[in-house]
Amino acid sequence: MNRRIFTMSALASVFGAGRATAAKGPFEVTRTDAEWRTMLTPLQYNVMREEGTERAGSSPLDKVYDAGVYHCRGCDQALYSSEHKYDSGTGWPSFFDVLPNAIETMEDRRLFTVRTECHCDRCGSHLGHIFNDGPAPTGLRHCLIGVSLVFRAA
Ligand SMILES: [Zn+2]
Fold this sequence. Notes:
Layout: H1 3-16, H2 33-39, H3 42-50, E1 68-72, E2 78-81, E3 85-86, E4 94-95, E5 103-108, E6 115-120, E7 126-131, E8 141-144, E9 149-153
Antiparallel strand pairs: 1-2, 1-9, 3-4, 4-8, 5-6, 6-7, 7-8
Bound molecules: zinc ion (ZN).
Zinc ion (ZN) binds near residues 75 and 122.
């Protein structure tokens, strides 16, 4: 495991703990906090509604390269295509591009630095972060948290 990423991840879990900083909206799909807690596991809730993360390498989707589409677990919106997925070596599912009209972004200042957070533009669920060290043609790395996603094979 990449040590820098492990450290960032550990810091994220420390600094992100208990801080509900979910995107504000308004969103097309809205649910009460109780509804979210009912439909999500505690890990999914922490990631999607409190901007938590998952342990690197823990998502089965990290190693999936079948043709298909990755949907938002919170509202089923289609977010990412397998055509844009690549192995970043980080242990998180990574994409160099996103489907049109799928996500919104905002600044995340929790880690002594400014990162670009991304969330579903239909329900506001946190998906991951976007970095500038991805492959061509976009040069972007959408670093996603697997529990936020549902994969549907084509
Ligand atoms: Zn959604």
